[in-house]
Amino acid sequence: MKGRVISGKEISASVRQKIAKDAREFEQATGVKPGLAVVIVGEDPASCVYVRNKEKGCAEVGFYSERHQLQAHASTEELLAKIEELKANEKIHGILVQLPLPRQIDEKAVVSAIPPEMDVDGFHPENVGRLLLGEARFLPCTPAGIMKMLEYAHISVAGKECVVVGRSNIVGKPLAMLLLQANATVTICHSQTKNLPDVTRRADILIAAVGKAHFITADMVKEGAVVIDVGINRLANGKLAGDVDFDAVAPKTSAITPVPGGVGVMTITMLLENTLKAAQCQIERKNPDRTSFY
Ligand code: GUN
């Protein structure tokens, strides 16, 4: 079986068109452009690329965006002061601090300092708790993007064996929760999982979020499985590679996501969706007499 390739690029284009249209209507009704502030500390090349793509995404759908660059040796206090400044900025509805942060910075304090209603990453403890309860305000962008891709590809997860490889707070854990809420049977694997290929071969839907190039090989995949590749790894030759050995695995799958052009672009699209939602909620809260602007 040769797997069909689920294009994050194509799905994103269609979702972004809808976001752009909703943003235009919102601006016509309220005079407000959804605004995102992205804060980056230091100059990690991968983070710089992600941040640039986030800014490009904002421009594409007609949002306002600001980038705030802090020096690599910035302190927690400096970053917290920057967040305070952005909280008071009328043009900004969503605040995102690019992770990972340099070691001297207290990441927990930073994530908790972003008001939950401006936390377009969905990383604030309150938003994480809401997600666990099935009452999410903002879904974390990568897991939300994966769920959207499955939906657009007409792949139902209810009753399926879903195996998530990786247990990060950003991807593995929240994705497992979303799959569970969509009635999948979910297994989370990690570095101490015994007999990993035995577990991954059970998967109807296998999600690789490990951060190691070509970690998932053909022998780890069941014939006809759906494979979602979250990895974005830079090879020595400068090329990007996923966590899945695409060329070897694709022929065994019924559907597979590519890298690049797969989950990564969806992540940014979901960030745009969250930013629009943040703007809508904040403006509505400031104008409680208006029942709805959109
Ligand atoms: N670093 C890698 N992925 C992400 C993300 O989704 N949000 C933030 N803020 N940092 C990241």
Quick structural gist:
With 294 residues, the protein is an alpha/beta fold. It contains ten helices and eleven strands. A hairpin with a 5-residue loop joins β9 and β10.
Protein topology:
Elements: E1 4-5, H1 8-30, E2 35-41, H2 45-60, E3 64-70, H3 76-87, E4 94-97, H4 107-113, H5 125-133, H6 141-152, E5 161-165, H7 172-181, E6 185-189, H8 196-200, E7 205-208, E8 226-229, E9 233-234, E10 240-241, H9 246-249, E11 255-256, H10 263-286
Parallel strand pairs: 1-11, 2-3, 2-4, 5-6, 5-7, 7-8, 8-11
Antiparallel strand pairs: 9-10
Bound molecules: guanine (GUN).
Can you offer a commentary on this structure?
The protein is built from ten helices and eleven strands. By secondary structure, the protein is an alpha/beta fold. The strands form three sheets. Strands 1-11-8-7-5-6 form a six-stranded parallel beta sheet. It has a three-stranded parallel beta sheet with strand order 3-2-4, sandwiched between helices. The chain has a two-stranded antiparallel sheet with strand order 9-10. Strand 2, helix 2 and strand 3 form a beta-alpha-beta unit. The mean pLDDT is 96. Bound molecules: guanine. Guanine binds next to strand 4 and helix 6.
Report how far the terminal alpha carbons are from each other: 45 Å
CATH architecture label of the largest domain: 3-Layer(aba) Sandwich
**Helix amount:** 40-55%
For the record, what is the CATH homologous superfamily label of the largest domain? NAD(P)-binding Rossmann-like Domain
